[in-house]
Design brief:
Layout: H1 2-9, H2 14-23, H3 28-39, E1 44-49, E2 59-64, H4 68-86, E3 92-94, E4 101-105, E5 109-114, H5 116-122, E6 132-137
Parallel strand pairs: 2-5
Antiparallel strand pairs: 1-2, 1-6, 3-4, 4-5
Length: 139
């Protein structure tokens, strides 16, 4: 697994990534998602700012987990954290039962949690190459 090995070999300074998240010009709820993904050991965390490019959503958050069970755990943790801290409930949740690609739709932001295989297969970021991109944790 290329991404998993890369993430392990390129250990990042937790405090440095946390600082990047804190000072990014992003809404509070998007920062909370990024922090939660960091705390729960996501292998990749990228935020795309889509506000000026589409009416579908303002931000797209892309994460990679270590596998289906980890992806499901990340999704569960995000739902719980956003509900407890910001009183937000997802409008829709897709793919959680299998865990290869989980989508959480919060209207103003959408979270995609991929397995490495699905991330490589769909390459969602390539659809939005001309948008502002925040790479908090990359592989």
């Amino acid at each position: 697994m290329k991404i998993k090995e890369s993430a392990i070999n390129n250990r990042v300074d937790y405090q440095e990534v946390l600082r990047k998240i804190r000072y990014a010009r992003l809404p509070v709820e998007v920062k909370l998602v990024a922090r939660t993904l960091l705390d729960k050991k996501a292998l990749k965390i990228t935020v795309l700012r889509l506000r000026e490019h589409t009416d579908v959503t303002d931000h797209l958050i892309i994460a990679i987990g270590t596998g289906p069970k980890h992806n499901q755990a990340l999704a569960d943790e995000l739902e719980e954290t956003l509900r407890k801290e910001l009183k937000l409930k997802a409008l829709g949740v897709e793919g959680k039962e299998f865990g290869e690609w989980v989508l959480l739709d919060y209207v103003d932001f959408i979270i995609h949690i991929f397995s490495e295989e699905f991330f490589q297969k769909y390459q969602l970021e390539k659809l939005w190459m001309d948008v502002r991109k925040y790479d908090f944790l990359s592989c």
